[in-house]
Amino acid sequence: MRVLFYNVYVMSQATQAQLATHETALVTGAAGFVGSHLAERLLHDNFVVLGLDSFTDYYARNLKENNLRPALQDPHFTFVQADLRTADLRDLLTRHKVRYIFHEAGQAGVRPSWGKDFQPYVERNILATQALLEAVVSLPDPTQLKKFVFASSSSVYGDAEQLPTDENVLPRPISPYGVTKLAAEHLCFLYAKQYGLPVVALRYFSVYGPRQRPDMAMNLFVDAVLRGKPIKVFGDGEQTREMTFVSDIVQANLLALQAPNGGPRVYNIGGGERSTINGILETLGEIGGTQPRLEYLERAAGDHRHGAADISRAQAELGYAPRVGLEEGLRAQYAWQKERIKADERRTTNDE
Asked: How far apart are CA 259 and CA 171, in angstroms?
């Protein structure tokens, strides 16, 4: 493993020889929730992995550093701290002979995307994506890149009238976040059509599991159950979500490498089960052996009422099939967060 601050290193001859024997994948947002899991899976599958992250201040840096720890132990992993908008990406892609790009980086969060906080969404979802695409089309060898996989979101659909929703439904986002994810999608498709880039967009439906960001609903729900605190529910709790476990998301990314060429492709990636928020909270209560205390609030701006993925295209073209059921996934996240709380308590005790 080598940690790099871009533009201040030179690869050794030994490293160059090593890279020549493996195909290299770039994972942007490699310190994040999905990106860190994806980097580990790629390493397991014998890729050389170049991980890039800018460590934005959206949530605590130490959590992202913890996400990276497993990958950092692998000699086939190189980490670069850089901002996609300002790094010399053409040089980075060329030096590392990157053949695959998994673009997971971006500014997340529906509710914070309103008002004065919209600027980072434009910068990190739209401008950063455009900078990466420009770097790819400027490569000396136009055949270097085999696949560009973009992490999109079901938020592009907004309050879809058709449930389950297939990829032919007209996207109508109802949050600024959704607008920027759709804009980034369109950029990817434009570059695919203009320059022949092998682009695949994956529209993730409600990802959850270990390492989930602390601001995400499932993390907040589980934390409240573990600590015996009240749970804030925006709306009546009868809104539905199709939850997708992170390992299924990672599997979809690997399968995307098999997507047919000849034009940009887009796929819904869902978990195969749809549940109300109230139903999810009831299951969490059973897992924790407690009765959650719920506080119902007004529906939050930008929250869609229902979400359900038609994954038939991904099934037919990629062989995608979700493997982790909702209860199994919730138990895994619950166990992970419980262990994190215990670890924090041990550290606090040792520091006293």
From this structure: 22
